[in-house]
């Protein structure tokens, strides 16, 4: 029964910390846009494509003879 004297205040403290962290995340904008990050993986961006085609290796001048 004495353990309740420790567990009840401890649980209230943890609930208070969890609420404070949630409020902090909401104020920082963590929950403003929940859809776009999930769709970003599906979008092909310009920087994902190679900038140029691989050039063939230069011909050896000794092979021209």
Automatic annotation (TrEMBL):
Region named Disordered: 45-65
The signal peptide stretch is: none
Task: Note the InterPro entries from the entry.
Answer: Cyt_oxidase_maturation_cbb3
Which protein is depicted? Cbb3-type cytochrome oxidase assembly protein CcoS
The scientific name of the source species is Cognatiluteimonas sedimenti
The gene name on file is ccoS
């Amino acid at each position: 029964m004495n353990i309740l004297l420790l567990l009840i205040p401890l649980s209230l403290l943890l609930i208070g910390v969890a609420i404070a962290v949630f409020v902090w995340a909401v104020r920082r904008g963590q929950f403003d846009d929940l859809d776009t990050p999930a769709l970003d993986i599906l979008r092909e961006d310009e920087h994902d494509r190679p900038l140029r085609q691989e050039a063939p290796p230069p011909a050896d001048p000794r092979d021209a003879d």
